[in-house]
């Protein structure tokens, strides 16, 4: 399948990613399970760390990315509100989070969004009865993808040429936002069997 810079090939089932993770069978299964987990990534990470924190990189209006407008249902040249964060566990960057939503729905449908700061988005999405989630899609992001460039800028140093990602839509009343999670290399330590949850400590 051809690869186009700036776009990712988003797939509807994590099993399609199996060949991309085949170097480590056990890690492949566990990574696939994390990618497909419909629950809150924030709660999943908090259960495995003594120190969870959110680093806010940006939250401002900007142009929608080339592989996002169809999924969000807006024209290709739309401007959206975007939010980029890095989730840290015990001081290690484990997930890059990217959220986009229509500028017209921020105040009407997502009133908490502009006040998040370093509060994780999941703290609101997964505990609001008005919020519904669509199925998750999965991709391998290549170095030319805009999100990969943002990660490289935020985390200077060597990074893999590709990273695994997932995204899904959340709807509330008439508004829709899309959340993308990109798995960073340090997450592996929390996925492997030796990683203990706080309940085990």
What does this structure look like?
- It contains seven helices and seven strands.
- The radius of gyration is 16 Å and the shape is globular.
- The chain has helices at residues 25-36, 41-46, 69-72, 106-109, 122-125, 146-154, 188-191, and strands at residues 52-63, 79-89, 92-102, 131-133, 137-142, 162-172, 175-183.
- 21% of the residues lie in helices and 31% in strands.
- Strands 1, 2, 3, 4, 5, 6 and 7 form a seven-stranded antiparallel beta sheet that branches.
- It is α+β, with helices and mostly antiparallel strands and 201 residues long.
- A hairpin with a 2-residue loop joins strand 6 (162-172) and strand 7.
Average pLDDT score: 85
Number of strands: 7
The SSE string, one letter per element, is HHEHEEHHEEHEEH
- Derived structural class: alpha+beta
How does the major sheet shape up? Answer: 7 strands, antiparallel
Q: What is the oligomeric state here?
A: single chain
Number of helices: 7
Percent strand? 25-35%
Span from first to last CA? Answer: 46 Å
Q: What would you report as the Rg, rounded to the nearest angstrom?
A: 16 Å
Shape: globular
Low-confidence stretches: none
DSSP helix fraction: 10-25%
Summary tags:
201 residues; seven-stranded antiparallel beta sheet; 7 helices; alpha+beta; globular
Characterize this entry briefly.
With 201 residues, this protein is of the alpha+beta class. It has 7 helices and 7 strands; from the N terminus they run ααβαββααββαββα.
Topology:
Elements: H1 25-36, H2 41-46, E1 52-63, H3 69-72, E2 79-89, E3 92-102, H4 106-109, H5 122-125, E4 131-133, E5 137-142, H6 146-154, E6 162-172, E7 175-183, H7 188-191
């Amino acid at each position: 399948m051809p690869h186009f810079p700036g776009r990712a090939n988003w797939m509807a089932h994590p099993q399609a990613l199996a060949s991309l993770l085949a170097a480590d069978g056990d890690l492949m299964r566990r990574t696939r399970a994390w990618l497909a987990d419909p629950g809150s990534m924030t709660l999943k990470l908090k259960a495995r760390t003594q120190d969870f924190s959110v680093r806010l990189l940006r939250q401002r209006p900007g142009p929608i990315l080339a592989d996002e407008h169809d999924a969000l249902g807006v024209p290709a040249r739309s401007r959206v509100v975007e939010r980029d964060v890095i989730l840290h566990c015990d001081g290690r960057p484990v997930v890059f989070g990217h959220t986009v939503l229509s500028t017209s729905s921020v105040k009407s449908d997502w009133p908490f969004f502009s006040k998040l700061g370093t509060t994780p988005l999941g703290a609101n999405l997964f505990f609001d009865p008005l919020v519904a989630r669509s199925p998750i899609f999965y991709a391998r992001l290549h170095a030319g993808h805009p999100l990969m460039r943002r990660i490289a800028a935020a985390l200077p140093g060597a990074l893999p040429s590709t990273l695994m990602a997932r995204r899904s839509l959340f709807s509330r009343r008439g508004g829709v936002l899309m959340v993308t999670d990109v798995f960073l290399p340090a997450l592996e330590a929390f996925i492997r069997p030796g990683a203990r949850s706080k309940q085990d400590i």
